Amino acid sequence: AQSVSQHNHHVILSEAASLELGCNYSYGGTVNLFWYVQYPGQHLQLLLKYFSGDPLVKGIKGFEAEFIKSKFSFNLRKPSVQWSDTAEYFCAVMDSGAGSYQLTFGKGTKLSVIP
Amino acid sequence: DAGVTQSPTHLIKTRGQQVTLRCSPKSGHDTVSWYQQALGQGPQFIFQYYEEEERQRGNFPDRFSGHQFPNYSSELNVNALLLGDSALYLCASSLSLTQGGSPLHFGNGTRLTVT
Prior knowledge:
The complex is a heterodimer.
Chain A: E1 4-6, E2 10-14, E3 19-21, E4 23-25, E5 31-38, E6 45-50, E7 56-58, E8 64-68, E9 73-78, E10 87-95, E11 104-105, E12 109-114
Chain B: E1 5-7, E2 10-13, E3 19-24, E4 31-37, E5 44-50, E6 53-57, E7 64-68, E8 74-78, E9 87-94, E10 105-106, E11 110-114
Parallel strand pairs in B: 2-11
Antiparallel strand pairs in B: 1-3, 3-8, 4-5, 4-9, 5-6, 7-8, 9-10, 9-11
């Protein structure tokens, strides 16, 4: 079974600081990778996704993530965070093979940005 | 607006009772997935419905069952409730034609408390 590890439970940053949230997955086959974000009081929203091709993917609101296959990692980055980035971030993986529809999530990382 | 609507938003039940949660997918979507999110955890896959049939199931007991209707809406039923079933239940919809790479659109969830 797949598993997803997010290294940090809670990250606190000041505005304009750079962000990197770690994500590692256990599955050795071909995968689709996602980052979802949940702003306070809102539903989970897709931040960005990786299916194939360029391992550096760009998402909404200036976020990007890099897929490193050899490290089974898909870390999320943002050069300069804003107070409005305060949210919980979830990394998720799906086996891209036929017959697989299950998205496996990490436990999430709560990001608090201090103005 | 989430696009995916869930009802009710909150529910309190007693151990041993049965509960039904409802979900209407985003317009144009034909696939519905259900996830359970316990406090401090990431969402866990319960099952997915497509063409009114359960297409894949996660590691949940038979007490968890579901249904999909011809209009693509869905219900999640949980029988013989346990205290451990207390969680946020998330419904997510997607398009079957892009399976594997179809991002999930989540609702706001139903908060179930079992006393």
